[in-house]
Amino acid sequence: MTDQKSYLRDDSLITTHHAEDYEHYYNAVVPPVFMNSLHVFETLDSFYSADPHDMHQYCYGRVQNPTVRIFEEKVAALEQGTGAAAFASGMAAASTAVLACVKDESHVVCIRNAYGPLRTFLTGYCAEHMHVKTTFVDGRDLQEFEEAVTDKTDLVILESPSSIVFSLQDIREVSALAHRHGALVYIDNTFCTPIFQKPLQMGADIVMHTTSKYIGGHSDVIGGVLAVRDGTLFDKLLQMRELLGGIVGPMEAWLMIRGLRTLPVRVRQHQETALAVAQFLKKHERVKKVNYPGLTCHPQYELMCRQQEGNTGLLSFEIDGTVEQAVKVTEALRIFKIGVSWGGFESLVFMPHMKMSSEECKILGGEPQIIRIHCGLEGTKYLLEDLESALAGI
Ligand SMILES: *Cc1c(COP(=O)(O)O)cnc(C)c1O
């Protein structure tokens, strides 16, 4: 027998059973998709006396929905936070979080390798309309954060590991530093998923996932989620979501609940395959560099072991050759399909830096010929064969 408390400790019990309310749904083993825009009331008094803080008091679908709620409770438990809020995309979650944390003339510190559209949001809209100033840092060196974060800083934005060059930030040290200056710490935890990294336990204030990646897991949904510990911050995020209107739809939330069910087993398989692929590439004579934090030769391997319990299926490598040769390798792959995104069942390949200037590449830390691959669930053997034959062509 497992009691409610152990549900909160074990990730697999959370993804399978936590926050399920069988009696309310005719004991259906899978909750229904609550495809409704509003909930009705017996009396006006019951409507007006509803407690806005009661998470199960449903009124209108832009504010909350029972299917969305089940998903959020699972994510909050996985991240060991007090609450989670789900959004229609990762970017809806990210931009809502930023807008909830900054004010006119705020200072933000952000890692250089953060997700591109989020950087564009900061340097575009937030700079132009709210006079937000962003200082970009490499993120590997604490000293750099010490110089960048001041008492004027309201928000520190991390993504560890980052998703192209796979550099890490020390979540505990950066959070402690940010808090000494009264700043909040936001971290994109999409690569690790809550199964392999729990940033709220290390001091981060807001954890973001794009559920379009591993949490959805089947390349059939776009969504995002924020998890937090602090109740006041949670209320603020919920209010911002209500005002900006970015809540996820019930059908997507249902798919995200389904994705969560198998998340612990999927990420372990992605890890096993990606590690074998990374080790294969590492030994290959045409490969100059492999970026995967699970390799013992990764320059931040020790930090990785301190803050992560694993790595998932995404990695990048640079061939010993020209951009044209990298294109040739990419296009010769058969199982790895060319496409953005990652975290689904399928293997993907992309060259994110190929159209960038060498100046931009230098800032981001990866050469134009960098090839990023997502190791899917087709089977390690087939992926190794695919890479072997593609690399043999150059
Ligand atoms: C895809 C991605 C996002 C954005 O998520 P969307 O659901 O596409 O809006 C944010 N961060 C990372 C690391 C991503 O890979």
Calculate Rg over CA atoms.
Answer: 22 Å
Question: Which percent range fits the helix content?
Answer: 40-55%
Largest sheet: 7 strands, mixed
SSE topology string: HHHHEHEHEHEHEHEEHHHEHEHEEHEH
Class by SSE composition:
alpha/beta
- State the CATH class of the largest domain: Alpha Beta
Largest sheet: spatial strand order: 1-7-6-5-4-2-3
Counting DSSP E segments of at least 2 residues, the number of strands comes to 12
Number of helices: 16
Q: Ions, cofactors, ligands: which are bound?
A: pyridoxal-5'-phosphate
Q: Give the N-terminus to C-terminus distance in angstroms.
A: 58 Å
Instruction: Provide the residue-averaged pLDDT.
Output: 95
Using the coordinates shown, work out and report the CATH topology of the largest domain.
Aspartate Aminotransferase, domain 2
CATH superfamily of the largest domain: Type I PLP-dependent aspartate aminotransferase-like (Major domain)
For the record, the count of structural domains works out to 2
Q: Estimate the strand proportion.
A: 5-15%
- Shape type: globular
Which descriptors apply to this entry?
globular; single chain; 16 helices; binds pyridoxal-5'-phosphate; alpha/beta; Aspartate Aminotransferase, domain 2; seven-stranded mixed sheet; Aspartate Aminotransferase, domain 1; five-stranded mixed sheet; 394 residues; 2 domains
Explain the overall architecture.
Helix 8 links the parallel strand 4 (153-159) and strand 5. The relative contact order is 0.12. This protein is of the alpha/beta class and 394 residues long. Helix 12 runs parallel beside helix 16. The radius of gyration is 22 Å and the shape is globular. It has 2 domains: 4-259, Type I PLP-dependent aspartate aminotransferase-like (Major domain) (Aspartate Aminotransferase, domain 2, 3-Layer(aba) Sandwich); 264-392, Aspartate Aminotransferase, domain 1 (Alpha-Beta Complex), CATH 3.90.1150. The model has no long low-confidence stretch (mean pLDDT 95). The strands form 2 sheets. It has a 7-stranded mixed sheet with strand order 1-7-6-5-4-2-3, sandwiched between helices. Strands 8-9-12-11-10 form a 5-stranded mixed sheet, with helices on one face. The protein has helices at 4-7, 11-16, 44-48, 66-78, 90-101, 116-130, 142-148, 171-180, 193-196, 231-244, 250-261, 263-283, 301-307, 323-332, 358-364, 380-392; strands at residues 83-87, 107-111, 133-137, 153-159, 184-188, 206-210, 224-228, 287-291, 314-319, 337-338, 348-350, 371-374. Residues 89-91, 115, 159, 163, 188, 190, 210, 212-213, 222, 224 line the site of pyridoxal-5'-phosphate. Pyridoxal-5'-phosphate is lined by residues 89-91, 115, 159, 163, 188, 190, 210, 212-213, 222, 224.
